[in-house]
């Protein structure tokens, strides 16, 4: 599939200590070349909304802790390339600590 | 309950606090546990899934003679003495020889520990010298997996996802620490008799690094704030041939590793014009020149406008033709999957993907901040200058001198093991010191301020400013004028901007990235600032430290270490001659290339 120049990243948002229920926020992210889901989330956090909570550590597939759901499928955010619009959700919606980071199972 | 205990959300008491859980910290915890003291690990992530160890190549050193006693082929030409001499010479004589002796002596012991804990190894080979094999190779992921298993088996208590913010002292010795639970935002008072810092480097202070997200110089900065001496802060190693593009793989050193293998001799480095630029810098050895010369050469090409669009040069295999590249891909796959059973993304997926790409295009690569040679000053027993405070692994300084010539994994294991042996006897000899409530209050105030402020500078904005300075002025090639600017600018960021840091996006205390980054920025800026100061002071070039305005290696004036300490809020700077046991210090002034050549005569690129 060809890579779009800009994509929409729809993110699950939930702060159990403050929100009654989850909601989704959508962000526009420029794809400046082959980017991973994690690159998109980092772009959002560093440029659009610093409050977005998600896990990041090694960025190259070593720590295996950045599991999220992309369009419903579980995957590692750092190793999954993005080419089109995506919806990102935590692995376990019933165990959310905040936003895209749910408790380790 | 005393006054201080009421100030934090939680109170934890232990005898020995270990900050960091991986190659150095995990090893220290396991060793200390053996000596019967209460141990608590506090880690910013999860054991086996954070820090730099997991990302290591990895290799562990042992001299060829001792290797035989461990059942490896070994090499009769080698001995602990010869290994020691190589390390001192290749570090350009700036290392602490007592520490180097311990490194050589403990390397097999630490390696044996990890193998006993179940680390699978790939083979007996060396990645650091050409003359003889001097160690084993494995994967960082296998190393930390063995540590995680052992920590679990021994039931060593761990506080996960918790950042130690500052140390507490009483009458100049360790009394505890204050930490922050990243998941909940709760503050924790940790009472203890001793602390081992194993927090790694300050990689994230640079815009282009091979390090993970959590390496922000916390241990070095908190030790400095507590009054400990730091050493060799100017020694920052940059790794050439690191991927600058594409964004998803930025920071990977897989092509650097590839170029160090036997097959790596086919690699060509080209500039943006397609020229094999090493012909100009080292016509005899070309890409097989020393790592330092290759790094500097590629940096000079980029500087002269002959780089690629993302600030790098090119890794090229095109001259081999598609068929040969295919052959290499198949051989690599066979080796990785069948022989090594290596499941890492970098070796399994990324490497074949990149090699495939090399049939039609070149890959843009550059110099990334890779390893911090300086840090908390320790002696051969891992003792810092503060009683009760120990440091192990990359956050410590003094071992390598001017070049990190051998395995950093071994350094972590060796120093972790020594700290785990030495700290328990200290713990046995002292009582828990009284916690000073005023100190706790000041630290909590610092922690809470960014959340309480309603205006100021955002952590993202300050991070950009920091990266702008480190990227342009504290890179591989240094220069007095730019270093002076960096010192002044960083001083301003530390004194003004850090005091205005404000978390704006959410005041929620759970997983608040802006808040944690605000605390980490103070640490990264502290390390960078001290590194810039030390770099400006060292008026020569030596090993991994290169100044274009002082290109000679000056043994007559600069065979000394720069030591820094906080005194009355100011940096106190001192100079110390390297500690010598067997090898006297040389004299004379050499050109940079000569010095590197003499020092690394036995070496290939590393």
DSSP helical segment count of chain B: 17
Shape of chain B: globular
Look at the structure and give the mean pLDDT of chain A. 96
Largest sheet of chain B: 5 strands, parallel
- The total count of helices of chain A amounts to 1
* CATH C-level name of the domain at 8-236 and 370-429 in chain B: Alpha Beta
- Proportion in helices of chain B: 25-40%
Q: Kindly, what is the distance between the CA atoms of the first and last residues of chain A, rounded to a whole number of angstroms? A: 33 Å
End-to-end span of chain B in angstroms? Answer: 55 Å
Into which percentage range does the β-strand content of chain A fall?
Answer: 35-45%
**What structural class do the secondary elements of chain A suggest?**
mainly beta
CATH architecture call of the domain at 8-236 and 370-429 in chain B: 3-Layer(bba) Sandwich
Order of helices and strands of chain A: EEEHEEEEEE
* CATH fold type of chain A: Ubiquitin-like (UB roll)
Question: What Rg of chain B is obtained from the alpha carbons, in whole angstroms?
Answer: 23 Å
Q: What's the architecture of chain A, going by CATH?
A: Roll
Q: Oligomerization state of this entry?
A: heterodimer
> Unreliable stretches of chain A, pLDDT < 50, 5 or more residues?
none
Strand order of the largest sheet of chain B: 7-3-2-11-18
And the CATH topology of the domain at 8-236 and 370-429 in chain B?
FAD/NAD(P)-binding domain
Secondary structure topology:
The complex is a heterodimer of chains A (105) and B (606).
Chain A: E1 6-13, E2 23-30, E3 35-36, H1 37-48, E4 67-70, E5 73-76, E6 81-82, E7 86-90, E8 96-98, E9 101-102
Parallel strand pairs in A: 1-7
Antiparallel strand pairs in A: 1-2, 3-6, 4-5, 4-7, 8-9
Chain B: E1 10-13, E2 16-19, H1 25-34, E3 39-42, E4 59-61, H2 64-69, H3 80-90, H4 97-116, E5 123-124, E6 135-137, H5 140-153, E7 158-159, E8 162-170, E9 173-181, E10 187-191, E11 194-197, H6 218-225, E12 230-231, E13 236-243, H7 254-260, E14 268-270, H8 278-281, H9 291-303, E15 313-316, H10 322-339, H11 345-357, E16 363-372, E17 375-377, E18 389-391, E19 396-397, H12 408-429, H13 437-452, H14 459-473, E20 477-478, H15 480-495, H16 513-537, E21 546-547, E22 552-554, E23 561-567, E24 570-576, E25 589-591, H17 592-599
Parallel strand pairs in B: 1-10, 2-3, 2-11, 3-7, 11-18, 17-19, 20-21
Antiparallel strand pairs in B: 4-6, 5-6, 8-9, 9-10, 12-17, 12-23, 13-16, 14-15, 15-16, 22-25, 23-24
Helix pairs in contact in B: 1-5, 1-12, 3-4, 4-12, 6-16, 10-11, 14-15, 14-16, 15-16
């Amino acid at each position: 599939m060809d890579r779009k120049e800009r994509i929409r990243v729809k993110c699950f948002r939930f702060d159990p200590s403050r929100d009654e229920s989850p909601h989704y926020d959508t962000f526009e992210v420029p794809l400046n070349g082959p980017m991973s889901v994690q690159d998109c989330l980092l772009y959002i956090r560093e440029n659009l909304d610093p409050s977005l909570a998600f896990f990041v550590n090694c960025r190259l597939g070593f720590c295996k802790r950045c599991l999220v759901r992309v369009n419903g499928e579980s995957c590692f955010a750092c190793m999954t390339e993005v080419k089109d619009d995506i919806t990102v959700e935590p692995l376990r919606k019933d165990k959310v600590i905040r936003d895209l980071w749910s408790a380790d199972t | 309950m005393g006054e201080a205990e009421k100030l934090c959300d939680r109170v934890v008491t232990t005898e020995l606090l270990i900050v960091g859980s991986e190659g150095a910290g995990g090893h220290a915890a396991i060793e200390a546990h053996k000596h019967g003291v209460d141990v608590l690990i506090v880690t910013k992530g999860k054991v086996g899934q954070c820090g730099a160890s997991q990302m290591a190549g990895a290799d562990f050193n042992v001299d060829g003679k001792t290797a035989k006693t461990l059942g490896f082929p070994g090499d009769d030409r080698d001995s602990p003495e010869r290994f020691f001499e190589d390390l001192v010479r290749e570090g350009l004589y700036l290392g602490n020889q007592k520490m180097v002796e311990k490194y050589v002596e403990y390397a097999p012991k630490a390696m044996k520990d990890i193998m006993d804990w179940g680390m699978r190894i790939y083979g007996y080979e060396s990645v650091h010298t050409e003359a003889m094999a001097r160690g084993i190779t494995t994967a960082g992921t296998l190393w930390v997996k063995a540590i995680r298993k052992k920590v679990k088996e021994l039931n060593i208590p761990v506080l996960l996802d918790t950042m130690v913010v500052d140390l507490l002292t009483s009458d100049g010795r360790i009394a505890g620490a204050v930490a922050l639970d990243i998941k909940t935002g709760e503050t924790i008072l940790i009472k203890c008799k001793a602390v081992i810092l194993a927090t790694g480097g300050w990689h994230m202070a640079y815009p282009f690094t091979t390090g993970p997200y959590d390496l922000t110089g916390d241990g070095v900065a908190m030790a400095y704030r507590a009054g400990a001496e730091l050493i060799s802060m100017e020694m920052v190693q940059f790794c050439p041939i690191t991927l600058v593009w594409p964004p998803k793989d930025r920071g990977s050193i897989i092509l650097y590793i590839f170029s160090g293998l036997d097959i790596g001799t086919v690699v060509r480095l080209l500039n943006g014009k397609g020229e094999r630029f090493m012909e100009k810098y080292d016509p005899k050895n070309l890409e097989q020149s020393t790592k330092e010369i290759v790094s500097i050469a590629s940096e000079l090409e980029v500087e002269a406008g002959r780089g690629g669009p993302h600030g790098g040069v090119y890794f090229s295999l095109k001259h081999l033709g598609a068929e040969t590249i295919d052959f290499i891909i198949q051989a690599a796959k066979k080796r990785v999957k069948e022989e090594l059973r290596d499941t890492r993304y970098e070796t399994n997926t990324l490497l074949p993907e990149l090699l495939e790409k090399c049939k039609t295009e070149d890959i843009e690569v550059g110099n990334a901040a890779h390893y911090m040679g300086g840090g908390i000053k320790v002696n051969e027993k891992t003792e810092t200058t503060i009683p009760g405070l120990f440091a192990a692994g990359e956050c410590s300084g003094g071992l390598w001198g001017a070049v990190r010539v051998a395995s950093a994994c071994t350094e972590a294991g060796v120093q972790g093991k020594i700290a785990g042996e030495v700290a328990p006897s200290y713990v046995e000899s002292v009582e828990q010191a009284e916690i000073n409530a005023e100190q706790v209050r000041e630290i909590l105030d610092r922690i809470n301020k960014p959340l309480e402020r309603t205006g100021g500078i955002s952590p993202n904005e300050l991070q950009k400013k920091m990266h702008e300075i480190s990227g342009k002025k504290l890179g591989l090639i240094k220069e007095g004028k730019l270093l002076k600017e960096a010192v002044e600018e960083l001083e301003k960021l530390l004194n003004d901007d850090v005091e205005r840091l404000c978390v704006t996006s959410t005041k929620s205390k759970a997983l608040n990235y802006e808040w944690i980054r605000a605390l980490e920025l103070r640490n990264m800026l502290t390390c960078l600032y001290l590194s810039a100061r030390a770099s400006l002071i060292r008026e020569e070039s030596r090993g991994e430290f290169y100044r274009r305005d002082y290109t000679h290696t000056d043994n007559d004036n600069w065979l000394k270490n720069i030591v820094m300490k906080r005194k009355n809020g100011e940096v106190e700077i001192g100079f110390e001659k390297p500690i010598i046991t067997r090898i006297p210090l040389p004299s004379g002034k050499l050109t940079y290339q000569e010095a590197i050549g003499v020092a690394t005569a036995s070496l290939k690129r590393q």
